[in-house]
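Running this now, will post back.
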Amino acid sequence: MRTSRLLVFLLLASSAAVQAAGTFTVLPAPGVRVTKMSPNGEYLVGTYFGEDGNTVGYIWRASDQSSHVLTAMNNVIGVNNLGVVSGSVPLDGGALFNGFDLGATGSIGAAPSLLTAPLETNSNGYDIADDGTVVGLSFDVGYSQNRTKAFVWTPAQGMQVLATNNPSSYSRANTISSDGRVIAGWNDNDFGRSGVIWRNRVPMDVQDEIGNRVGEAVAVSGNGRFVAGGFYTDPLGNYGAWRWSEKSGVRVIPNMEYAFAISDDGKTAVGSSSFFEGRTARIWRSGVGTVDLAQYLVDNAVTGVPEGFLLVGGFSALSADGKRMAGWGYDSNFAVQSFVIDVVEERILGDSFEDRFQPPPPPEE
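Update: finished.
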């Protein structure tokens, strides 16, 4: 009898399937365009664009669903797992109004701190690691080619230029892994704007197995294992975004011209159909392919999408586990509005006898 009951239990358990469901939440901050999410999914940051052209920083916290405006910062672009943000503080109106942008860090309820030992008159922190290392762009008033550079900043060393293989041309660091060891961005050269990965501050121009260059590197997974970006044509002529890992090298992400974020296992990337306005939000999943975000929401029974909401802005942020994602689009009045999507996988009983007791496959490389 015991054997029979055990057998029934195992048969039921082995036929369990995974079904996804989720929620779509519009953030209570009209005009905010979110840019990045901390790998742990707790913090989401962006910038509010006012009708007068002025901008202020914004941060959303998942644990209490709270929104916070960082009024002293005119740009907030990056955030780490501790809720410390990176961006800039305006001086004399900021760079858009003939003033200056001063690279800075900040957090909820605290005054921002300027990055020390700046290289040029302007700087902007594009991302921040958990140890406080900041990467970004330092530039002069005229954006001259030899004075528009990728930088790395630490409290101990201040701001330093990140070395590139074409140091006489423009460069920028867009993102950094949680431990600060992997940085990704771009450097202009004879091929155009090429993706660069810095590992322990050493630059590598990203190329595929036959030497083709890829476009700008935009995203690095929180664990530093995967980097993604845009504008790549593979050896077979397929065009799209790209994903890199040390083991597999460069692989095209089809039907997504620009990838903004990638999960720790490298199996999920979010991005868009193009870089420019009017772009369609899209999501790529290993083994599934790329679909429009609107279709993904239907396929995964995601509820809460307001009627008339347009998913044509920036699908820009993703947690390390790929279960929380965020971006911005337009509401039914064509006003900019940011959103958060949470997807939950639930095990249900089905009629399949697949061997679901096998350990999951290792993360894709």
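The chain has a mean pLDDT of 89. More later if anyone needs it.
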